[in-house]
Amino acid sequence: MVNLSQVIGFLIITIVAFVASAGGEQVVTYVFGDSLTEVGNNNYLQSLAKSNYPFYGIDYEGGKATGRFTNGRTIGDIISEKLGIESPPPYLSLVPNDDAILKGVNYASGGAGILNDTGLYFIQRMTFDDQINSFEKTKEAIKAKIGQEAAEKHVNEAVYFIGMGSNDYVNNFLQPFLAAGQQYTHDEFVELLASTLGEQFTRLHQLGARKIVFHGLGPLGCIPSQRVKSTRGICLKQVNLWVQQFNSKVKKLVDNLNKHLPYAQMTFADTYPLVLDLIENPKAYGFKISNTSCCNVDTSVGGLCLPNSKLCTNRTEYVFWDAFHPTDAANAVLADRIFATLFHQTTSSPAPAPAPTRARKFFSRKHRN
């Protein structure tokens, strides 16, 4: 079992190290993922996977939907806040030569997967391959702005956050009407995911990405959309076992790529135990309900929070917002736990001032390029 403190610690250490070593310059982050990290790309697509309508964003600044699949902020938003940087904007909101590309971009898209056929029934979404293609265009635009040598340095020093794979299960392998679940055994399916992911990581490396953090999958068997498949409304043990098999496979993949790709500094962040503990012990974190969603969703038609849905009376008491995604309050707890794991503080305490110095020493000692 991966040591949670080490992997989560490195996730934040990586970012803070860049903040500390940048001499006041803003850390640059490029985000790839699905609806857990999307900040609005699907607003610009003809997609069935959208959240730019009430009640999404009801607890976000201004109270309006932005395309985030929650009632407020994503974990990425909250971590950015803690680091004093702006959350990267959605790629599709930018013009090709926008100056904002030098400060980071979010390519995440609801419904996206590792496999290109994942989420096909959403019509349009940016798959992981699509997101990598978009990053390649971003890099070309950066070259045009600051020259090739500076562009290479820029992409080498940026941090790349990737969270992929949930849809490959929830909206592919676990769907009885799709081919993947019938065509492959799970052993075959997880091998396909890992081999495809290996090719995608390698391509990102060829484009200059060095410091990559891949977020493993959480306990998908415990999300509301899967619990309803149980007659007792409990977590689906088999799904969680499959997820852990995927996480283990990807951890080995990342270790292998670090050995064979020059200057690669990839890490696998196993957040599975952290999320599972929040779901199994909600009261320890100030929540009351973790087995169903705040928004009364219809899982037979997608599980999203529609404008005519009924909301819970206290959104801060629920771990899940809809059938798939955490609430703003749950995202805040998870982000705080990540920082607390690194700095050994209580979840309500801010990161101490000396932390960047410790992080810099750690990074320069163990992860020198």
Automatic annotation (TrEMBL):
Its main location: secreted. Pfam families: Lipase_GDSL. It is found in: Secreted. Keywords: Hydrolase, Lipid degradation, Lipid metabolism, Secreted, Signal. Residues 347-369 are annotated as: Disordered. Residues 1-24 form the signal peptide. GO terms for cellular component: extracellular region; nucleus. Gene3D superfamilies: SGNH hydrolase. It comes from the Eukaryota. One of its GO terms (biological process) is lipid catabolic process. One of its GO terms (molecular function) is hydrolase activity, acting on ester bonds. Residues 358-369 have a biased composition (Basic residues). Belongs to the 'GDSL' lipolytic enzyme family. This is GDSL esterase/lipase.
